[in-house]
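Encode chain A's predicted structure.
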Amino acid sequence: MTDTVFADAKPIDLRGHLQNSQLISFSMDWSGKLYVLALVGGPPQTPYERAPSYDFEVIEATEHYMITYRITEQKNWFHHAQPLPNDELLLVSGTSRQQQNALTFTKNGSHVGAFALGDDIAEIYTTREGHIWASYDRNGGTESLVRWGSEGVNQYAYSEFVITPYALNVVSSAEVWHYAHPGFSLVKIVNDNVAGRWQSPIRYAHKFAIWQQYAVFAKDERLTLLKMESDRSVTPIKDFDVLNKDDRVSSRANYIVVNRNLIFHKLNIADLVKSV
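Encoded structure for chain A:
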């Protein structure tokens, strides 16, 4: 990516490591490391093309190193991968055919445990304390956001009528941001209480990052920088037309990650704010 927005970010190039695998998803952990979930080898498969078992790999990567973990001979098709603080991995099926759709593994691939996190999971993020935040695409449900313990105990649920949760940003165990329809409101939750709500002028965005009073929304081929004012109004600052239609985007805390042809570009939006 040659756009000046990403000029200072050293990309993570996984083309060689994923050339014989199918990318499923990617996200960041609490420290900003990239975690990539991929299906190992074989022709492209989907959850609708059932196989006796699946082999997965989870790639942990930064700008300076890469480690691959193998999770083999699994009957579940996994959609999400995140680390747990006890040097374990959490793999989750978003649409489960079995009650226990969250499995934990050691980093050498040994199975540790299993528990249920519910169906229709849109996003999964863990924290350094071992909490698991999950957002749900339940088309009109009242619990679109849940925090679970590391063994699947429901600790907190954000109970507000939501038609579609579009994006979740887990800054820490204590601070989480939620963007959903109806209203396309951006909700800040601190210590299990709603600490603020802003009406976003960006509709149907699929990811967003947060830094201080600023937010960057990713929608279509554009990043939009906004300022959240103290009176709960939102001021648009600048649009950056830097995305391609085939780019895939992830975000956490103050970072946006753009996957372009298996090259992952990481943007700290604090740098974006300081550039305008």
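Helices lie at 269-275.
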